[in-house]
Amino acid sequence: MKKILIVLAVAIVGLVLIFLFKTDEQVYQSVYRGNERETFRILFVGDLMFDRTIRTTAEKNGYDYLFSCIGDYLRGFDLVVGNLEGPITNETSVSQNTKPSEVGNTTFTFDIDVAKTLFKNNIKMVNLGNNHILDFGLMGRDSTERELSRASVGYFGSPGDSIMATTTLYGYTLAIINFNQFIGENNPQKTISAIGQASGIADLVAVYTHWGDEYVLATEYEKTLAHSFIDAGADIVIGSHPHIIQEHEIYRGKNIYYSLGNFIFDQYFMDEVKIGGGVEIVFAGDEFSEREVSEKEVLFDIHPDGTTCLAEN
Fold first, then answer.
1. pLDDT of residue 172
2. What are all long-range contacts of 146-153, with beta carbons under 8 Å and residues at least 24 apart?
């Protein structure tokens, strides 16, 4: 105990000396740079679904097994963002052990352990603005928000709540705004207004959508909306729902990824649903120099054993 007190005393004296004898900029560098980086890395991924055969696999092998091939990669980022394709509840699954086209096959609920598993694997922000978040009604939505909050996982797009989330890490502010074609107001103007609000406070304004038709290329509806979001000030548009990777477009110098496809999912009936997309975004620079932003596409292999891995080049 005596040694601990001595160490604490020395640390306090050191901080006092820093503030007494250094300039403001030097104090900032000494005290805060230890928790700040000159690069900030974000990863966007697609749809996350933890019911049906994914639930069965996790009950047998543990939820960490699903990320056993990709977890180290995910933890290399400062933030990973994906679409949580259903609610987290204590309710019994109705889709587990069903076959396609059977009643309940596309009605999802995820085990409570999913929230902690997301956090452990660095997926610390999820979109709830999708067509499955109300599969178990408002109770399911409320339970999802509660469990995510307990696990320190942020969320945005939840029906009835704000469509936007902002987070600041290492001096960088990120605003993520949802557009949901299927539940709620389906009001592009609401998303456009949020983009305007975010543009003045964020280093990056990302729109994460849930839109389009499944298993086909981007619709004209998607393209029109994506362009309107960029016109309003969005820096990037990320899409989800079609379960396949859709086109990548550069519009007015900004990237649009119409759909990243699946990330954790149990669809294996054609090659396109077994390949997921991701977007790495890297900020370089600091408060005292001009920041640069770079973007890189990555691919994932989605395996029948429930795991997702980086695709081999």
1. 86
2. 147/88, 147/112, 147/114, 147/115, 148/88, 148/115, 148/118, 150/115, 151/115, 151/116, 151/118, 151/119, 152/119, 152/124, 153/115, 153/118, 153/119, 153/123, 153/124, 153/125, 153/126
- pLDDT of the residue at 286: 63
Q: Which segments of the chain have a pLDDT < 50? A: 2-35, 288
Amino acid at 152: S
Length of the chain: 313
Convert the pLDDT of each residue in 142-195 to its tens digit. Answer: 999 999 999 999 999 999 888 999 999 888 899 999 999 998 767 899 999 999
Considering just the CA atoms, what is the radius of gyration of the chain in Å?
Answer: 21
Is residue 87 within 8 Å of residue 126, measured between CB atoms?
A: no
Domain boundaries, the chain: 1-35, 39-310
CA separation for the pair 46, 277 (Å, rounded): 7
From residue 6, how far is each of 3, 12, 14, 19, 153 by CA, in Å?
5, 10, 12, 20, 37
CATH class of 39-310: alpha beta
Instruction: Give residue 98's Cα distance to chain centre.
Output: 28
Q: How far apart are alpha carbons 86 and 293 in whole angstroms?
A: 32
Task: Count CB-CB contacts under 10 A for residue 26.
Answer: 12
- State the residue for tokens 């990669």: 73
Q: How far apart are CA 160 and CA 185, in angstroms?
A: 10
Task: Specify the pLDDT at position 24.
Answer: 29
**Tally of CB atoms within 10 A around 262:** 29
Check: pTM over 0.85? Answer yes or no.
Answer: yes
H helix intervals, the chain: 2-21, 24-32, 52-61, 63-66, 71-74, 113-120, 137-150, 188-199, 220-232
